[in-house]
Write a structure and sequence with these properties.
Layout (H helix, E strand, L loop, with lengths): L2 H16 L11 H7 L3 E5 L2 E6 L1 H6 L1 H8 L2
Antiparallel strand pairs: 1-2
Length: 70
């Protein structure tokens, strides 16, 4: 999506979440997921390889290096 549209969708998802509605977001752009998520799951080869908060993911260099860096 165009960057402006991505920003707009991010703001809308944030507003929905603030109202107390749970959202399941499948997203490849980590920056978006980090901004609006309370919990993150990283999948690799069909299984969950990480589950935790955005802060926990940022602190877990092994998971980031193995599964998220190109």
């Amino acid at each position: 999506m165009a960057p402006k549209l991505v920003e707009q969708v991010g703001r809308l998802l944030d507003e929905i979440a603030r109202r107390g509605t749970a959202i399941l977001l499948v997203e490849q752009k980590l920056t978006i997921a980090l901004k609006i998520s309370h919990r993150l799951y990283v999948m690799g080869h069909g299984r969950i390889v990480f589950a935790g908060s955005p802060a926990e993911l940022m602190a877990n260099t092994a998971v980031r290096k193995e599964w998220l860096e190109v």
